């Protein structure tokens, strides 16, 4: 029979209070009986107090991306998980985080400037919903279990958890986000607010009136939508066509098309003589940042690729008064050190500069 004085675990006490209890223990004693011992044998027992503490708060809580119905949250795990490893050989186990919890609610009405921006707050386990979202009760508890399918490690320092079941075009508030160990919930992180994306607008009709394109929308996509953007899709459609017909071009015509440069007015200008990743270019909202050369405009693109491209395709909405800037770009393509085939999808540059383009083409053919 062995006995010792023990200290009851008190989660509400701070670490300093628990250390003071070790120095001045209360009048209580625990007794444990050990069996299956060998007779006439010396045994050495090592006894240690296991301090059970709550985990520290999570840091860097932010929104890493959102759709119309879900948001991906990113955060750094707490540095203090509970009783930390003391680096001696007598400690059998260490505390660990079992899950993460938070309270989700629809935030109060945002200001007009916040509605216009609708940017994600800057503060890659299934979310278990305890309370449904309704008009009478707009709060719910969410939990991400360690090892769950919707909780993953983005890097050695970050975790990413997905929160689903959200409404489109809505401002949400996430509060009381904390880690949970065997003792309970730890210190809560600061509040995070984020927007979900609006739905795609539905176009009922399109008509032209006095030189303007008038769109009639049957559905705007959300109650907080204040602005719309029109994306001309000719360039993207051509790139998608190249991807879809890649095998056909290769098998039927023995032609392998490699895009080495793209110039746009709104999404930037990039180039790579070794070939661009078309799928990455189509998926990116902005071309700069893909890890390739970034240029100022289309003229700079042609100068950068001088002698390194076989054809230049121009699909600019050219002016109906002089054919510019498409006409200048076509002449620049024909004037390169190794002239490229100049292809245009516009009528104005041919209507206004047909003779100039013919002369440039004749000079190229004479040089050959």
Question: What is this structure's SSE topology?
Answer:
Blueprint: E1 2-4, H1 15-23, E2 30-32, E3 59-66, E4 71-76, E5 99-106, H2 112-117, E6 139-145, E7 151-153, E8 159-163, E9 171-181, E10 184-185, E11 192-195, E12 202-209, E13 212-219, H3 234-244, H4 246-253, E14 261-263, E15 269-271, H5 278-283, E16 293-295, H6 298-304, E17 311-314, H7 326-334, E18 341-344, H8 348-367
Parallel strand pairs: 17-18
Antiparallel strand pairs: 1-2, 3-4, 4-8, 5-6, 5-9, 7-8, 9-10, 9-11, 12-13, 14-15, 15-16
Helix pairs in contact: 7-8
Describe the structure.
With 368 residues, the chain is α+β, with helices and mostly antiparallel strands. It has three domains: 59-195, Immunoglobulin-like (Sandwich), CATH 2.60.40.10; 201-230, no CATH class; 234-367, Rossmann fold, CATH 3.40.50. The chain has helices at 15-23, 112-117, 234-244, 246-253, 278-283, 298-304, 326-334, 348-367, and strands at residues 2-4, 30-32, 59-66, 71-76, 99-106, 139-145, 151-153, 159-163, 171-181, 184-185, 192-195, 202-209, 212-219, 261-263, 269-271, 293-295, 311-314, 341-344. A hairpin with a 2-residue loop joins strand 9 (171-181) and strand 10. Helix 7 runs parallel beside helix 8. The protein is elongated. The relative contact order is 0.09. Mean pLDDT is 76; it is low at 7-15 and 110-137.
